[in-house]
Amino acid sequence: MRSRPYGPDLTPPWKRHRPAPEVPAERDLVVEEAATGFCGAVVRCEKTAEGFTVTLEDRFGKHRVFPLVPRGFLLDGKAVTLVRPAAPAPSRPPGRTASGSVAVPGARARVARESRIYVEGRHDAELVERVWGDDLRIEGVVVEYLEGIDDLPAIVADFAPGPGRRLGVLVDHLLPGTKEHRIAARVTGDAVLVVGHPYIDVWQAVKPASVGIPAWPVVPRGEVWKEGVCRRLGWPVDTPAAWKRILSKVDSYKDLEPELLGRVEELIDFVTPPGQE
User: Fold this and answer.
1) Is pLDDT above 90 for 94?
2) Are 74 and 34 in contact (CB under 8 A)?
3) Alpha-carbon separation of residue 115 from 83, 124, 139, 165 (angstroms)
4) Mean predicted lDDT score pLDDT of the chain
5) Count of CB atoms situated within 10 Å of the CB of 11
6) Mean pLDDT across the stretch 129-155?
7) Is the pLDDT of residue 122 over 60?
8) Rg of the chain's alpha carbons, rounded to an integer?
9) Would the pTM of this model clear 0.70, i.e. be above it?
């Protein structure tokens, strides 16, 4: 017969101590200290010069401090090893949208309001969507583009603004004495707000540093501005591709000039007044 091999521990199985389960010493956990029989709720767990300790408080308010040792406590009459509770996860700051506002995770888009925001062109609309899209969906604001503002008076009349139906318009190159300024003055009213930035085109509202250029080039009058920009930057004269390149560099409001940021925020506030659905 072959003898059964034995390990170095010859203690019979029924006499061996199984490791006691580890239990975090969470505040208010009620345990009994095995050696003294002191029973109390956990007040705190801390590190001392002698090692980690736990402070218990009995029902009379008396405190006693005990070391955290294996099988040192009883929980519901069974031996346990108290251990330090896990550190609380660091609180995360609230997320932010690209516009810098507090994000609302899981929020559904609101049913569109009657009020609207109009912008001059497709590039303006795409830039507004990229930075303010989350905010606009929560507010239920639709942005549409006009392909220029020469027909703005007729467009406003057709929109029929009024109480609960406001119209905000963002205009490029809105400077005193310009054609754009004269048109804006004709339509501005209690339910219509026209604001603008000083740039020839919304491309310039993107910070040059974000695009990776020192500055936006100066293009002489008489030359198509966007094509002139492409030539002076050494880009192919392909304005859709150039705009795609510029827009890809915009991650948040930090990539835009303040002159545009303030005007878009003003329009959003105008078409979403308190109490208006």
Assistant:
1) no
2) yes
3) 60, 18, 11, 5
4) 86
5) 8
6) 88
7) yes
8) 35
9) no
